[in-house]
Amino acid sequence: MKDVLQQNIAVLLTCYNRKQKTLDFLQSLIGQEYFNKLKIDIHLMDDASTDGTGEAVKQKYPFIDVVTGSGNLFWAGGMRAIWRYAMNVKSYDLFLLFNDDVVLFDDSLQRLLSAYVKTGREGNIIVGSTLSSVSNRLTYGGNIHYNIKHSKYFRAEPDSRKAITCHSCNANILLVDKATVDQIGIFPDNYKHCLADFDYTLTAFKSGINVAIAPGYYGYCEDDHGANWLSGKNSLKKRIAYLYSPKGLAYKEYLYYIRKHFPADYAISFIKLWLKTFFPILWDKFKLKEEHN
Predict the structure, then answer these.
(1) 19 touches 52 (CB < 8 A)
(2) Which phi and psi (to 5°) does residue 12 adopt?
(3) 132 — pLDDT class (breaks 50, 70, 90)
(4) SS3 186
(5) Which of 35, 71, 81, 203 is the S-S candidate for 48 at Cβ 3.0 to 4.6 Å?
(6) Which architecture, in CATH terms, is 4-220?
(7) Is the pTM of this model over 0.90?
């Protein structure tokens, strides 16, 4: 493995109308002492923000490569587009994927890269876990499935000292090396907003790639997913729209994900989506909740 200080690193993120959050993230990244020791480029997909996000970034950080999107990319589409773009700019050894609402801890970059180096191998996905700044509880990171043939999982707390193997990850803070991209590519085209990171990391795990939770925590990021159904207080028309919405239940994308990775769960998953839409009182009353976003 080449010395990490000699590796070409691409930071990838997408944004839309969260100017201050985007600037706060970039400050938390660029302000780290370790940042200046690395051969690192930042590629930002500004998906036609109307709040001046792209312009503000260019003004404050003129060295950042800001690309303007169509305005209809959503998260997965934006990340996929900027990833493809970056690979046409330069041959990168490492890709660091971030959400723009993350605020990194001061030593996060160095610790994340150290976790990668300690694997001693190529073919890695390393996830950095995040905390809520309000509750100080785990919000995003790596997931472990109770049975790899079924979709039910729990989000694993990171160990303070050693990396933990996991099955799938959120891409709020995610390191992917070139060997992984060479083997399985980038985010699949089947997702517009959510689930691209889960699909990608599950595919990697099943392909023999090392998928692991880095030791400790790497930043603050609030869980903004909320309930994964629309309350019965809303009209049926709104609930059906939510069923198909990329930011709602993402009906087609979710069933594709289940069929691909957990075919034994397909029938029950199909039924639950429609039950949530036509009989949301079951979830309103009993707060039934499964994580899949």
Answers:
(1) yes
(2) -125, 130
(3) very high
(4) coil
(5) 71
(6) Alpha-Beta Complex (3.90)
(7) yes
